[in-house]
C-alpha cells in the first residue's frame, strides 16, 4: 500500500495499492526497536532502557518468537536484516547476534543470508569527513574548491586554528550546499515544518495551520504517514 499522491486537504490520508511493492517478491517484517519506539513495548521497566547490543538481543528474541510460535511457515525462507539511516549502526549488530545464535545451535534455526542497508550511518564522528569528496564527486562543487579544501582541511580535526586557511573555503563550500538535502541530494529542499496539519477527525486536534499546495517533500509524506498511523481505528487494526 502507499499514500495517495494528491493535495492534502486536512482529512484522513487515503491509501491505494502499490504495484511496485517489495512485498510482491519478499515477506517483510517491520520491527520497531529499540523497545518503546513505534508500536513496540516492553513488559518490564528495565527493558525500556537499552543500548545497541541489548536492543539487538531484544530484536532477536522477538524474531525467534515470531518464527517459532506464530509463523513457523516462514522458517525455511532466506533471511536478511535490513534498515537505513541510524540502522547502519544497529543492523550489523542484530545480524551478528542472529549469527551467534546459529553457531550456538539456538532454535529456531534462521536461514541468515546477510544484511541490507540504505543510506546508513557508519561511524558518526567521521560522517562529516566525507562531505567534501562526495560533493566533488557529485558535481556540487568545482575541482578548484575541492583541491583548496583538501589542501588545508584536516579530516581528523576539522577546521582548527592551525588550518585556518581552510575556513574561508569551507564557508564557500557550506554556502554552495545550502538548500541541498544532504541525506538525499535529489530530494526537493523544503521547510521542515511545511506540513502543519489541522486534525478535524477523531479525538486528535492541532492548532497548526493546514498545508497549502501539493505534497512534494519527503518530510510531508512522513507527516502524512504519522497522521494516518495515529488515528484510533488504524491503531486498533494494527494492534
From TrEMBL:
GO terms for molecular function: serine-type carboxypeptidase activity. Pfam families: Peptidase_S10. Gene3D superfamilies: alpha/beta hydrolase. Transmembrane segments: none annotated. GO terms for biological process: proteolysis. Belongs to the peptidase S10 family. This is Serine carboxypeptidase-like 18. It comes from Capsicum annuum (Capsicum pepper).
Amino acid at each position: 500500500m502507499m499514500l495517495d499522491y494528491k493535495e492534502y486537504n486536512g482529512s484522513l490520508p487515503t491509501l491505494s495499492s502499490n504495484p511496485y511493492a517489495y512485498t510482491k517478491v519478499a515477506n517483510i517484517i517491520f520491527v520497531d526497536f529499540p523497545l518503546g519506539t513505534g508500536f513496540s513495548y516492553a513488559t518490564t521497566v528495565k527493558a525500556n532502557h537499552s543500548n545497541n547490543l541489548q536492543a539487538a538481543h531484544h530484536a532477536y528474541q522477538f524474531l525467534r518468537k515470531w518464527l517459532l510460535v506464530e509463523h513457523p511457515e516462514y522458517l525455511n525462507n532466506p533471511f536478511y536484516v535490513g534498515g537505513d539511516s541510524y540502522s547502519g549502526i544497529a543492523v550489523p549488530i542484530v545480524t551478528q547476534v542472529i549469527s551467534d545464535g546459529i553457531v550456538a545451535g539456538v532454535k529456531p534455526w534462521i536461514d541468515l543470508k546477510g544484511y541490507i542497508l540504505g543510506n546508513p550511518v557508519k561511524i558518526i564522528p567521521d560522517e562529516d569527513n566525507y562531505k567534501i569528496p562526495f560533493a566533488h564527486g557529485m558535481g556540487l562543487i568545482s575541482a578548484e574548491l575541492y583541491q583548496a579544501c583538501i589542501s588545508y582541511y584536516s579530516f581528523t580535526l576539522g577546521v582548527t586554528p592551525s588550518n585556518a586557511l581552510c575556513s574561508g573555503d569551507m564557508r564557500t563550500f557550506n554556502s554552495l550546499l545550502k538548500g541541498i538535502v544532504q541525506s538525499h541530494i535529489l530530494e526537493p529542499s523544503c521547510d521542515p515544518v511545511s506540513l502543519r496539519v489541522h486534525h478535524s477527525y477523531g479525538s486528535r486536534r492541532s492548532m497548526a495551520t493546514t498545508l497549502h499546495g501539493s505534497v512534494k517533500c519527503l518530510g510531508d509524506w512522513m507527516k502524512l504517514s504519522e497522521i494516518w498511523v495515529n488515528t484510533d481505528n488504524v491503531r486498533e487494526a494494527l494492534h
